[in-house]
Amino acid sequence: MGKTVALLKRELMAYFSSPLAYVILTAFLFINGYVFALIVGYLNDPRTPPMAAFKLLFGGTIFFWLMLLFVLPVITMRLIAEERRSGTLEVLLTSPVSETQVVISKFLAALAFYLFLWLPTVIYVLLLARYSKVEVGPVVAGYLGIALLGVLFLAIGTLTSALVKNQIVAAVFAFALLLVVFSLGLVENLVSGGVLKEALGYMNLWEHMDDFSKGIVDTRHVVYLISGAGFFLFLATRALEASKGR
Amino acid sequence: MIEVEGLTKRFVDKEAVANVSFFVPEGEVLGFLGPNGAGKTTTMRMITGFLTPSGGAVRVAGRDLARDPLGVRAAIGYLPENIALYPEMRVEEYLRFRAAIEGVPSRDAAARLDEVAERCMVADVRRQLIGTLSKGYRQRVGLAGALIHKPPVLILDEPTVGLDPRQIVKVRELIAELGRDHTVILSTHILPEVEQVCRRVLIIDNGKIVADGTPDSLRAGLAGAAELTVQLEAPEGDARAALAALAGAVGVKSDGNGRFRVAVEGGADLRRHVFALAVEKKWVLLELTQTMPSLEDVFLRLTTRDTAVEAAEPAEEVANG
After folding, report:
1. B129 in contact with A, Cβ within 8 Å
2. Which residues of A touch B145 (CB under 8 A)?
3. pTM of the model
4. Distance of alpha carbon B71 from alpha carbon B65, whole angstroms
5. Spans of all domains in chain B
6. Which architecture, in CATH terms, is B223-292?
7. What does CATH list as the number for B2-219?
8. pLDDT band at A141 (very low <50, low <70, confident <90, very high)
9. Which residues of B36-60 are buried (b: 16+ CB within 10 A; e: fewer)?
10. Is pLDDT of B321 > 50?
11. From the list A2, A14, A86, which residue is nearest B100 (CB)?
């Protein structure tokens, strides 16, 4: 446990001692602020039917997804690839910590950074609560959905970072995989009925987020996101072990 | 303490280490020699658990690498070749991190940190960022990290590469000192280093062990490399014949002034016999010296095939160009 904490601390330190973290933070805040302003403007238009602002902010627009698909691979690309490139992985894997501990601590650090990115958006909630009525349930569920989406996406990024030596390759690879996972659900609309359509429906992340932002915490969604993340983290551990064979 | 049995590593295109076995008893400092690409680093990486062996077994401090990999890793302090550190960390932070992942209890960490910083001569840069350190300091920070959990076994892969002469002397002294209370495997290219620090030498070439013994026994075992220089006031032909007839002499060369160079086999010392010969024949003995082969000679002799290949390569390039 102490070892995992030490690894986690070092990983977080590495995030905040690199300029990349601040670039991501700034870009993320800027885009989110822009989207928030757009949404508020749209909702202020008298012709707009009444709806909850956070339903739009949390997964209701393409901005949300674009941002996740582009930003998350950048958060995870460094994790293992950089240690492999610089050679520090040799010290890590010859000290008495297991591959699972290494993967989990790195994933947790990425998750912590990701959640930190969303932290300033709480200001939006406070702002809206001051000028209108905000329902607590959907907001909390929405944040839960955001966290769980992050869990799945960051697990995928951790895997690609474990597979390659080059950070950029890790990021592009993660982006491609995320695109596949994200579009699986959207393909649903192209399939006409049957088991396949139903299966793809379960994987429709857009609908998952839609439910979360309505305040519905569907266990099927939670199980899908968490078990998916577990699967990719398991693969990342295996990839790290397998790299010792070559 | 370290038991290596039939260790083998096959990469896709070649066998880097083939059926290597050796044993290092507690408290021994073993010098691990070999030309570049002979399989030294691969062997060390397998013992430390960074590479999975294709075959064979490793036991360190009574623990089996296959069954208890974390136990073996905990028993070893490993300094990889060209140690990589985290440039954004301060020396202190890095050592504290190493202490934690190597399993040093947190209440002991501060004392351990003080001790290794002192011992590895990095106490004066404790607050400095690793990225700003010179190569010599970085190497010693790596060594401090390898020592922080008091491992019974140290594996050092070319610890003095890239250091300036003064730092080399310091690090060598440190290794000799560590050899008193640790079992050490030291890989290096620098042969005087081995003679100074190691009680036993292992030479590996093309993935196989080609020699194993003390530096002295290796030199003694090298046929024809010891050389006897004799200068006699005597008839050239008689002296030549008499020297060639000595037991252990395998060849005599004369340079014309009554000086002879006698190649000696098996490390035998022929000086007594030469003296007796001179007394018996009433020849005046002007010079008598026997030189032992250096460890360089042993090394070059045992690994010649590899150097021949290296020498052939540039010629090929010329032919192709």
Report:
1. no
2. 91
3. 0.85
4. 8
5. 2-219, 223-292
6. 2-Layer Sandwich (3.30)
7. 3.40.50.300
8. very high
9. ebbbbbbbbbbbbbbbbbbebebbb
10. no
11. A2
